[in-house]
Design goal:
It is a single chain. Strands 3-2-1-4-5-6-7 form a seven-stranded mixed β-sheet, sandwiched between helices. A two-stranded antiparallel sheet has the order 8-9. By secondary structure, the protein is of the alpha/beta class. The structure holds NADPH dihydro-nicotinamide-adenine-dinucleotide phosphate and ribulose-5-phosphate. Ribulose-5-phosphate binds next to helix 12. InterPro entries: 6-PGluconate_DH-like_C_sf, 6PGD_dom2, 6PGDH_C, 6PGDH_Gnd/GntZ, 6PGDH_NADP-bd, 6PGdom_BS, NAD(P)-bd_dom_sf, Pgluconate_DH. It catalyses: 6-phospho-D-gluconate + NADP(+) = D-ribulose 5-phosphate + CO2 + NADPH. Catalyzes the oxidative decarboxylation of 6-phosphogluconate to ribulose 5-phosphate and CO(2), with concomitant reduction of NADP to NADPH. It is an enzyme of class 1 (oxidoreductase).
């Protein structure tokens, strides 16, 4: 072997091979390996000229081709395949070596693996990588966790291949053990919410009579302003696409059942455990599940009556502007909820994740990259926010748009166009700004049927009313 590689990638499907090429294009000598050797050979045959690759056909050969401390990126299917690869690697590694899991792993698995590798004197770096196939090749957003020490050896390499915004790499150390994968999971949860809002916006425009091509023009226009983002950009692309077989817009031919691989569901499950209301993300996950529930949809279609989905387009530009404002406002709520979930998890697990940094590394490379993220990052950097919604520029933005937001939700309700994302975002906004919530009645009911006690507004302690007795109140604390 002529030279040792300074980094290795095992798992050369779409993400792994593109990451390996990105590394090679940035001057790194990249050891490459895949369970089935055909992928390794194909990578070197097709892209060997892009840099220096050191191919291996066995795991032992792959490990031996790396300089120490070894840095190995595992890019295989999440779950059991990741464990299988780690089990094979560990006996071949030496103290101080670094194993990076770049797949979409559950953060609890990452915590387990990190702890196990630490016992062997190895570093395990659970790393969120977002940007899909193109991002992996041209510059993804990278969210590594693991030990601070491992980041010193690995960070410069990852930063060299990450997306750059204003000269800054969209890669930063997120915190110990599972922090990186947690941040990536929530990134995906926000991705779900963002896509649900976009779908609702399109649905309303469509119900107002806009063709797919006209809606594409609207999204293209929105992408020149405050909604500027990757997902808005590709929405215009998808809406513009015409199906060659039928000459109809492709969007009208695609089956209306949204699938999911699980990271959105994990976000919601984890939020339930942490007690963080990520209602917009939950509605987005449920909207996907509901869209695929054909038994229920088939049974209800034509049986359940309601308005016929006609949105008045009398003032078409007014409607378009209102929907744009509802989209911006709802998007802000999804970010507020997701970032709050990261903050809570960071407290729970002692990660000390810096929220401004999270928003900063999401500005480029990842699926949710958006102009708004620079503003969010600046607001979190300026002060410790209880919620993004109270950041001065955000609160002002919401104040100016809430009239439009309410009109859009009302329009959806009265015309029978489902808007679970927009309406749950607005309900959250109204909940957090409320002077008083009907939660007081919930507490009264809980005390009535289960003696669960309640607090009082005028004095400290826990109290119970003797509902089955003389209805006097007793202090229970
Ligand atoms: N696709 C995307 O846009 C994104 C994917 N990710 C994550 O990145 C990771 C890789 O994704 P992707 O490139 O799409 O590939 P896949 O998730 O389709 O995984 C395929 C790769 O996993 C390997 N593999 C599967 N089972 C095993 C096993 N038991 N032992 C060893 N290797 C195994 C395959 O090897 P073989 O060729 O031998 O079958 C192949 O290299 C996943 O965790 C995914 O969640 C993250 C961000 C975006
Ligand atoms: O990780 C990603 C981007 O960052 C993937 O795009 C994401 O896994 C897609 O998820 P789903 O299939 O559930 O929509």
């Amino acid at each position: 072997m002529s030279s040792l590689a300074n980094i290795g990638v095992t798992g050369l499907a779409v993400m792994g091979s593109n990451l390996a090429r990105n590394l090679a294009r940035h001057g790194h000598t990249v050891a490459v390996h895949n369970r089935s050797v055909a992928r390794t050979r194909a990578l070197v045959e097709q892209h060997g000229s892009e840099g220096v690759f050191v191919p291996s056909e066995s795991t032992a050969e792959f490990v031996a081709s790396l300089e120490r401390p070894r840095r190995i990126i595992v890019m295989v299917k999440a779950g059991d395949p990741t464990d299988a690869v780690i089990d094979e690697l560990v006996p071949l590694l030496e103290e101080g070596d670094i194993v990076v899991d770049g797949g979409n792993a559950h953060f609890a698995d990452t915590r387990r693996r990190e702890s196990w590798l630490r016992e062997h004197g190895l570093h395990f770096v659970g790393t969120g990588i977002s940007g899909g196939e193109v991002g992996a090749l041209e510059g993804p957003s990278i969210m590594p966790g693991g030990s601070r020490e491992s980041y010193a050896a690995l960070g410069p390499i990852l930063e060299s291949i990450a997306a750059k915004v204003d000269g800054e790499a969209c890669c930063a150390w997120m915190g110990p053990d599972g922090a990186g994968h947690f941040v990536k999971m929530v990134h995906n949860g926000i991705e779900y919410a963002d896509m649900q809002f976009i779908a609702e916006a399109y649905d309303l425009l469509s119900a107002a009579g806009l063709s797919a091509a006209e809606a594409a023009d609207v999204f293209r226009e929105w992408n020149t302003g405050e909604l500027d983002s990757f997902l808005i950009e590709i929405t215009a692309e998808v809406l513009d696409q015409v199906d060659t077989a039928t000459a109809r817009p492709l969007v009208d031919v695609i089956v209306d059942a949204a699938e999911q691989k699980g990271t959105g569901r994990w976000t919601v499950q984890t939020a339930l455990e942490l007690g963080v209301p990520v209602s917009t993300i939950a509605e987005s996950v449920f909207a996907r599940s509901g869209s695929g529930d054909t038994a229920v949809r088939d049974a209800a279609r034509g049986v359940l009556v309601g308005p016929n989905r006609t949105v008045s387009a009398g003032d078409r530009q007014g409607l378009v502007d209102d929907v744009r404002d509802a989209l911006w406002s709802s998007k802000v709520v999804a970010y507020a909820q997701g970032l709050e979930q990261i903050r809570k998890a960071s407290e729970e697990y002692g990660w000390d994740v810096d929220i401004a940094t999270v928003a900063r590394i999401w500005r480029g490379g990842c699926i949710i990259r958006a102009r708004l993220l620079a503003q969010i990052s600046d607001e979190y950097a300026a002060e410790r926010l209880a919620t993004l919604l109270v950041a001065p520029s955000i609160a002002e933005g919401l104040a100016g748009r809430q009239g439009a937001w309410r009109r859009v939700v009302a329009q959806g309700v009265t015309s029978g166009v489902p808007v679970p994302g927009f309406s749950s975002a607005l309900a959250y906004y109204d909940t957090v700004r409320a002077e008083r919530l009907p939660a007081a009645l919930v507490q009264g009911l809980r005390d009535n049927f289960g003696a669960h006690t309640y607090g009082r507004t005028d004095r400290a302690g826990a109290f119970h009313t003797l509902w089955s007795g003389d209805r006097t109140e007793v202090s229970t604390s």
